[in-house]
Specification:
Mean pLDDT: 94
Strand content: 15-25%
Order of helices and strands: EHEHEHEEEHEEHEEHEHHHH
Distance between the termini: 28 Å
CATH class of the largest domain: Alpha Beta
CATH topology of the largest domain: D-Maltodextrin-Binding Protein, domain 2
CATH superfamily of the largest domain: Periplasmic binding protein-like II
Number of strands: 11
Strand order of the largest sheet: 8-7-6-9-5-10
Length: 314
């Protein structure tokens, strides 16, 4: 039997290169990999089912599952994780340096359900959402109900970077470092002079490494061929392991001077970019709790509700 044609759309990640390059092959699938920018990929997958599988927003996926929308099947493989602290920016000349400095001010986020925004709101307010006036620039991918007391203004057609440079917001949380924060004379700068202590404090307090994206498969395809779930998941795992093995054997392949793999593994008690349900149950429960506090999901959603049953023991 010939392999089934299968499209997978993701961003660019070192851990996926063994799969993208064909050194790892999913059993029974003839894989075509597509590199697609986040916003377009998420929109096309949710609206059109444009790919057989895709990297997708964890925040929007939680909203979809909470509302009983089942067009996408989740795999507990998390392509992107990051702490929010080093993705908070202010104007270069401002005197803002701590989350407390933003109380009563305006902060730009992409959308209320954006994955980074979920964690940025928590990092900046510790749950007191009404202490900041939020400004969104992107449309909500799925309808949501804002929590009582939340002050949210929508500014379509603007970019977060532009709003900040114009002085229309005081800070932004953005998944990509703005161009205006780069170069010899940056107009924007990080809120934290050094984000690492704040990130380590978050890790010590919560025990979580925030999840941004997961991999999803079209539900209609899974209904026809349930085996594609485990085939793709196993291939994704094999790709990450092959990459990690290569870095361990040849650390010079990474373009950094002082690799800190041992330090990261020690701080996280193992592999930071861990996969599977079992190793991520705590992280997922914490994200669900934040999403519930922010009005995105109802209490009661569990990590087990998110993924295909065949991966419940992953």
């Amino acid at each position: 039997m010939s392999p089934r044609p299968f499209t997978l759309a993701t961003g660019t990640y070192d851990t996926l290169q063994p799969l993208v390059q064909g050194r790892i092959r999913p059993e029974g699938l003839a894989l075509t990999h597509l590199t697609v920018p986040c916003a377009a990929r998420h929109r096309r997958m949710l609206r059109d089912g444009a790919y057989d599988a895709a990297e997708f927003s964890m925040g929007s996926f939680l909203v979809a599952r909470a509302r009983g929308l089942d067009a996408l099947v989740g795999l507990p493989f998390f392509t992107r994780r990051m702490f929010p602290h080093r993705f908070l920016f202010v104007r270069a000349g401002d005197t803002l340096h701590r989350p407390e400095d933003l109380a009563g001010r305006r902060v730009g986020i992409l959308s209320w359900q954006n994955s980074l925004a979920i964690f940025a709101k928590a990092a900046l307010t510790d749950g007191a959402l009404s202490t900041i006036r939020w400004v969104t620039t992107a449309h909500e991918r799925l309808p949501i109900d804002l929590p009582a007391g939340a002050q949210v203004e929508h500014r379509p057609g603007c970019t977060l970077e532009t709003l900040l440079e114009r002085g229309e917001v005081d800070a932004i949380a953005t998944p990509d470092i703005p161009d205006a924060a780069l170069g010899p004379a940056p107009r924007l700068r990080p809120l934290f002079d050094d984000a690492t202590p704040a990130e380590l404090a978050w890790l010590a307090r919560t025990g979580t490494f925030p999840i941004m994206h997961l991999v999803v498969v079209r539900a209609d395809l899974v209904a026809q061929a349930p085996w594609v779930v485990t085939s793709l998941y196993d291939a994704l795992l094999a790709s990450q392991r092959a990459y990690e093995r290569g870095v361990a054997q040849q650390p010079q392949r990474q373009l950094v001077v002082w690799p800190q793999h041992a330090d990261a593994r020690e701080r996280f008690g193992g592999e930071p970019f861990r996969q599977g349900l079992a190793q991520n149950r705590h992280d997922l429960k914490a994200m669900i709790a934040l999403a519930a506090a922010q009005g995105l999901v109802e209490p009661g959603l569990t990590p087990e509700d998110l993924f295909h049953p065949s991966l419940s023991a992953s």
